[in-house]
């Protein structure tokens, strides 16, 4: 589902942005840039400075050994630790597995062996003050527990970028995984080595100190449990599956449903089988009640829907893909819609926006009767051509454009008319209201750039009737 809290809209916008860092589709992921972390030749800052009371030792050049750290970590609770000296040699900027000697069991009684290196281990860079971090932590905890229950386990180590130890303590209590002690020196070294530029970041801890894996937060947000084991190979597999669905290689059930759900819901809450869409042209309408551009476009879509219901009965259907901010808003929105919707909070909502790369609303994706994708720019087709664009094929759109160009032939580039004091220039508009006859118009129009004055071509003085009002 979309992260609605990050949506923005201004008075002059014709669409609303929705917060998807998404991705693997990294076009929708929320994250916080570590601009506050910048010292020397790294992005790190005074917020991660070495504590003033820390002891320092002088080492002769060429004789210093990599320090061994004794870090004692409780599972899922606040850490207590004893730590050896940390050097500042850039060559030693990465903590190796061998630098950590032991962990404590979850009850704090006795030590346990170091992490199972057969399972993937990830460093989770995050902070209590960061809202995107809080949102992603909830997602990661759910995935962690789900995978653990199915014995598909991975390991996480929390690397704190909190501003103080009290915030660290509060934040780490919610985590069921390992926690590194709160110490800016450790955080600085890990951030430098793994090139952490924003949080949250989730990066594989590689046994090769020279290898730096990519951040997988967007990948995890996009695919959830299905992303396991969070490798490049798995990402490629899932993206290939998305591509197949994007072009229409799968069924409508695979695209719109799930193993648990084979239906859509009407505004009255009735279940409508997805199979009822078979053989129809389908428009996937991505929108939300909170978005003014969506509220405006919904009226245009409804006009097209009603017109096609008369001229092409049973051949066109719309499916609403919601990005409403809460269920009450969703219920209010869908109650006035004559078409079915995907249930609120259903996983298919996020899946569809990911597959079709939707990061702005309103948006319409058009699917043909065979289930193949006709256009991901259905909103523009509907706004420009209305019901005349049906069945929304390339051939139909090309024919419409040719007709428009033919209508343009013979029309002057600019004219004068006694109805207005300024020159009027030929323009093309998706929709307008003629200031001469007060009737709506579409496509060709004579407009005044200074006064927002619009005139149908046929409303020009002495204009032939060969140019009917569209």
From TrEMBL:
Pfam family, one: Thioredoxin_8
InterPro entries: C1-like_sf, DC1, Nucleoredoxin-like, Thioredoxin-like_fold, Thioredoxin-like_sf, Thioredoxin_domain
Residues covered by the Thioredoxin domain: 91-246, 254-409
Alphabetized GO MF terms: protein-disulfide reductase [NAD(P)H] activity
Domain of life: Eukaryota
Keywords recorded for this protein, A-Z: NAD, Oxidoreductase, Repeat
Entry keyword annotation includes Oxidoreductase: yes
Signal peptide interval: none
Broadest EC class assigned to this enzyme: oxidoreductase
Catalytic activity: [protein]-dithiol + NADP(+) = [protein]-disulfide + NADPH + H(+); [protein]-dithiol + NAD(+) = [protein]-disulfide + NADH + H(+)
Record EC number: 1.8.1.8
Disordered, as annotated region: 1-25, 44-64
Protein family according to the UniProt entry: Belongs to the nucleoredoxin family.
The protein, known as: protein-disulfide reductase
């Amino acid at each position: 589902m979309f992260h609605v809290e990050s949506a923005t809209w201004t008075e002059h916008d014709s669409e609303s942005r929705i917060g998807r860092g998404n991705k693997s589709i990294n076009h929708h992921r929320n994250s916080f840039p570590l601009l506050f972390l910048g010292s020397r030749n790294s992005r790190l800052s005074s917020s991660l400075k070495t504590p003033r009371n820390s002891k320092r030792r002088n080492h002769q050049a060429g004789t210093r050994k990599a320090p061994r750290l004794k870090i004692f970590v409780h599972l899922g609770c606040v850490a207590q630790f004893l730590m050896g000296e940390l050097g500042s040699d850039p060559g030693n900027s990465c903590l190796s597995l061998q630098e950590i000697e032991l962990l404590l069991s979850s009850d704090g009684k006795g030590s346990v062996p170091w992490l199972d290196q057969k399972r993937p281990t990830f460093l989770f860079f995050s902070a209590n003050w960061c809202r995107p971090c809080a949102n992603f932590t909830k997602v990661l905890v759910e995935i962690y527990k789900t995978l653990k229950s199915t014995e598909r386990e991975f390991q996480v180590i929390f690397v704190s970028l909190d501003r103080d130890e009290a915030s660290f303590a509060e934040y780490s209590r919610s985590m069921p995984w390992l926690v590194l002690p709160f110490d800016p020196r450790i955080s600085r070294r890990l951030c430098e080595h793994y090139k952490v530029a924003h949080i949250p970041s989730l990066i594989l801890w590689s046994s090769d100190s020279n290898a730096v894996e990519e951040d997988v937060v967007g990948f995890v947000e996009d695919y959830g449990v299905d992303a396991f084991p969070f490798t490049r190979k798995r990402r490629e597999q899932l993206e290939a599956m998305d591509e197949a669905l994007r072009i229409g290689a799968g069924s409508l059930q695979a695209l719109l449903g799930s193993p648990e759900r084979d239906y859509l819901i009407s505004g009255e809450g009735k279940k409508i089988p997805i199979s009822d869409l078979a053989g129809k042209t389908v428009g996937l309408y991505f929108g939300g009640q909170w978005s003014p551009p969506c509220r405006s476009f919904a009226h245009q879509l409804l006009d097209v829907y009603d017109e096609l219901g008369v001229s092409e009965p049973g051949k066109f259907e719309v499916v609403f893909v919601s990005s409403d901010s809460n269920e009450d808003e969703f219920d209010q929105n869908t109650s006035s819609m004559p078409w079915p919707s995907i249930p609120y909070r259903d996983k298919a909502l996020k899946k569809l926006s990911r597959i079709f790369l939707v990061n702005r609303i309103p948006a319409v994706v058009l699917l043909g009767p065979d289930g193949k994708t006709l256009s991901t720019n259905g909103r523009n087709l509907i706004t420009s051509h209305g019901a005349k664009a049906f069945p929304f094929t390339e051939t139909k759109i090309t024919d419409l454009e040719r007709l428009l160009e033919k209508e343009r032939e013979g029309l002057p580039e600019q004219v004068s008319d006694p109805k207005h004091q300024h020159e009027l220039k030929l323009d093309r508009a998706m929709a307008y209201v003629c200031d001469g006859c007060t009737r709506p118009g579409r496509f060709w129009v004579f407009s005044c750039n200074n006064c927002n004055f619009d005139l149908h071509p046929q409303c020009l003085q002495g204009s032939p009737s060969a140019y009917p009002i569209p």
